Amino acid sequence: MTSGIVFSPRSRLVDRIHRAAPQLTGITLLIALATLPILAAMALDGRSFQGEDIWLKPLKFHIALAIYVGSLAVYALALPPGTMTTRRWRLYQSVVLGAILAELAWISGAAALGTGSHFNLTIPGLYPLMGLAAVTLTSLSLVMGLTFWKLGTSTLHLGLAIGLILTFVLTVIVAGTMSNGTGHHIGTVVTGARIPVMGWSREAGDLRVAHFLATHAMHAVPLAALTGARPVVWGVAVAYTAITFGAFVQALLGLPLI
Which range marks the domain in which residue 22 is found? Predict the structure, then answer.
């Protein structure tokens, strides 16, 4: 009997991912579909906030979180069957998904109201709640990373474990520093010159660079695991951490990436 992803209708990749992590697969699809009304709003609503289309931030967060949750759903294929469908895992995922939906609802709601979602202290207690939601949703990478670490049966498990754990640790450090300030810029922005697509400042230090790198440790390190060599995984993990902290320090010194 032949087995594999492409030979049996029930073994198609999407179907396997859904069975391994049904909640994560469902929320990924929901977030992806939610980008459609945001794109429509961008086309119909000409307002801007701090020099950018007011709907750009909600769009970026929807895309980023769809990639984040979708990646975790794919990684669930490397866990023992049924791991993420146990009662304990389903309850924990429900809390995480609630935090994700709350985060996206506020970011989109703030855009509709014509105000900023981040560094917004006009509603007492809301900003700390946003921080709690952010830590909660990021914690899923830590929990899954520790689960892979305990397995430790292959180079892939090692790469996934280190990448996911680094994502949580680096993101908490960078995002925590950023949230305790008054914005993501360190220094004075004069003309508003930005790096295309990413929107990072070309005039001042921008903590979003290190934040971006931190969140993508979950992709960079597991890719190194495809070499099948554990020393390569550790080497990439160390180098990636150094690059992320380099970008972090550069921003804190008020220096732009470019």
Answer: 11-116
